[in-house]
Amino acid sequence: MAVSSRWIGAVRGGLGFLTRLPVGYRDGDWEAFRATPAAFPLVGLVAGALAALPLLAAETLAAPTVALGYLCAVYAVTGIHHLDGVADLGDALVVHGDAERRREVLKDTTTGVGALLSVSITVVALALGGLGLAALPVVAAVGVAIGAEVGTKLGMAGMACYGRAASDGMGKQFTDAATVGSFFAPLAVAVFAATVVWPHPGAAALFGAVAGGGLPWNWANRYLGGINGDVFGAANEIGRVAGVHLGVIAWTLL
Q1: Over the stretch 91-108, which tens digit does the pLDDT of each residue have?
Q2: Is the pTM of this model over 0.85?
Q3: Does some domain include residue 1?
Q4: Per the structure, how many domains does the chain have?
Q5: In this structure, how many other beta carbons lie within 10 angstroms of the beta carbon of residue 183?
């Protein structure tokens, strides 16, 4: 496959996997996406820009309305399937037992109190972050929303390149296809995105999202023996929340 065709297929595969955008799907797109971690932050640029559209009304509509619009836009663009990772990790977090027991809980389809609490906190935290964005100037708010989305996708690319899979499954498909050296391309994409939103707090949001996504990764390495698809999903959601809040905090302290 030509390099240009592989990149196009990788981005198309990433949009198909990470968003709800009707991009179509072709044979080889999934394989190209798994082998091209740079597609993660590229998808973040697109998803972040689309999710930020309600923030353009921040100076004309009430802040709670804008925050609700941002929350709805995020899940309309990215879908809610990544929240399943938050739910599964929430149940695994509260269970008593060793790594094997926690991995069993991840596969359990029963929704426990840990899942309900973790998803509720994540959604409420993002809504409150959206409320903070609504209080920012439009340019700053949009920069934070884009930076958070790019950063959380960069964190996922980092897990694919450097992570260790705990078992067979979605996570292993990413870690097997990516290499340590392939992280430089997504990092370059993220650095470019950071320069675009600089000196606005979008750069802080990007870094905060990477750090936030690292929390479930670190926990999974300690208590699950590695990462899996649920950890990728949880990192996507937690990273976004951390990025938005850090971006708002950065603007407040400027």
Answers
A1: 887 777 677 777 777 676
A2: yes
A3: no
A4: 1
A5: 18
